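In practice, a research group might receive sequence data for several interacting partners and want a quick structural hypothesis before committing to experiments. The following worked case mirrors that situation: the sequences arrive first, and a predicted assembly follows.
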Amino acid sequence: MTTEQTTAPINAWHVAQHQFDLAAEMLNLDPGLRRVLREPRRELTVHFPVKMDDGSVQVFTGYRVQHNLGRGPAKGGIRYHQDVTIDEVKALAMWMTWKCAVVAIPYGGGKGGVIVDPKKLSKKELEGLSRRFFTEIEVLVGPERDIPAPDVNTTPQIMAWFMDTYSMHVGHTVPGVVTGKPISLGGSEGRNEATARGCVYTIVEAAAHLGMDLNTATVAVQGFGNAGNIAATLMVEQGSKVVAVSDSQGGIRNVAGLDIARVLQWKAEHGTVKGFPGAEDITNAEVLETECDILIPAALENQITARNAGSIKARIVAEAANGPTTPEADEILFERGVFLIPDILCNAGGVTVSYFEWVQDLNRDHWTETEVNAKLKTIMVKAFHEVLAQAQQQGVNMRTGAYLNAVQRVADATALRGLYP
Ligand code: GLU
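A structural hypothesis for the assembly, expressed as tokens:
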């Protein structure tokens, strides 16, 4: 593994393939199947025009990747970010395959992304971009084929535009083509909170396993988007003290504990958590190294690397983000006795409630939030203990434990289906 030996940015796709190779090796996976699962099934690149408010036409680039369709239709979000690359989307799509398999929901893995900073677009431009991008990827998507959802910087409103665009093209309303929709349009109760809620369910299980009392625990959260800010709120509900949070512009710290509701309000008014009264401003890197019991990376990939893994103080690292930890950092954390709950398990609550949403849409049904949360908890707790048992049996870290379970499930499905033709 050489991803960190150069100064070039760490390539998420190489990380994803390396993680898969570790599991494939341990499972003694058939070499042919290994070659298949190491690559995505389909990669679509689109360059598409959008009429801007000043009358000009700009061309944007986006991707939709389907990694695997063995256990069901492709599933996974679409992110809008200026740093999106095809390799990042490939990695995210592969991680979705394993994530759906870890929690045993009947999907393969997919992901999409558009290279854009959506904060620089007007609402009209954002709608135009969303509708045209979805039109371009319609050769792949559909409620039985590939079901997108929110990811970094994409919202229920954007899912509504996606759903409407698809529905206009086929001539009737198709709620099941996308998940994470507003509740009034066939969205599920609890979907908005699901990634964070699922993450906290796994933290509760991890704390019980380690004998940690969440009532006296301290928490640091990197990223204050949908996953990060709700995870912070839910950890406070568990009785824990959130001592540091950050967003893309920087972080804040108060060892006496931050009032998360007030931080949210501050961010809404000022566009960032920075400058929050009564807290010291710190960098994003300092958030990760903050003195705390539980660290929740909830931002982007490659944040915990060989460089800072030795300085992480937390006993539990709960990966609400996808791919926040590099393989070298995994080894360092494991050697240091840090208990890491890997992304494909820790943040699987989002896609799990997406699955509930899709089931409700296909059945023209609507479940209560209590029902959704109870079903989510059952799935997350079961998956956590299956992974923990696997990790303990094999003497490996939780990530490899999760990969062993996931890759085995995908391999079994593939073997039963056989190779076509
Ligand atoms: N983007 C989320 C993830 O990375 C959710 C995907 C979904 O709900 O399909 O898991």
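Before designing any experiment, note the following. The domain at 40-185 is CATH 3.40.50.10860 (Rossmann fold). The two ends are 35 Å apart (CA to CA).
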